[in-house]
Amino acid sequence: MDTRMSLYHQKTKSTKNYGQFFKKYAWLIAILIVLLGSIFGYVAYQSYENNMINKYQVKGIMISQSNGYIDFVTLANTGQKFVYIRASQGATYTDDDFSDNFQRSQGSGLQVGSYHVFSTQTAIKDQLKNFTREVGDDYGTLPPLVEVTSPLSDDQVHRLSEFIYMVHKYYDTNVVVRSSTSVFNRLDKKIDHDVQFFSGNVNNKRANFIEVKNNRKINIDGSNVYVNQIAFNGNKKGWQQYLLKNQDR
């Protein structure tokens, strides 16, 4: 047989075998392509997310009893600079771990603040009593924070404004409000100079604080802890100026 003809038949047979192989295992190849694409996409997203977080020079976290035990000295060694600890919610609920968390956070090198979750269902005077009873006279080194977790009607925004003003008067300090931009923009103008904004929008230049990533995994002393990663919306110099300004009560 002609050598050229033999090579042609071998090549044709080989091509046919490849075609049969790809046809037989097409489902497996498709799965592998999707899997590799997913892995590449996840790695790329993680890289983007880490770059976004790391662009903030001053980072911190928000915690509650759901986060479990946290070693605050070790937390400070991971590069976090501050922590907000939940104290209360509404008129009756208090965080089981607030007192322990607050006491253990002292001397850690972290700036510490206390926060209350605002309720639309209970009287604001009762909420103030609940928050101040749990926190006491020492709310920390950061302004008290009021968190709003849902949209509010105009009447509810007015009640929120009154509550913020009451917290401001009680502690004679500024108050940080974590809410949507819509809620924040509708707060009563009489409290403008006493209120600071905590925004969920990373591009909000007006905000003092930013929510960078909810449920971020941080390794603390060998254990993975999921926390709400937040940041001061400024550089290190701005952070020092912010601290000095808010220490002048």
From TrEMBL:
It comes from Apilactobacillus waqarii. Signal peptide: none annotated. The lineage of its organism: Bacteria, Bacillati, Bacillota, Bacilli, Lactobacillales. Keywords: Membrane, Transmembrane, Transmembrane helix. This is Lysozyme. The chain crosses the membrane at residues 25-45. Pfam families: Glyco_hydro_25. PANTHER family: LYSOZYME.
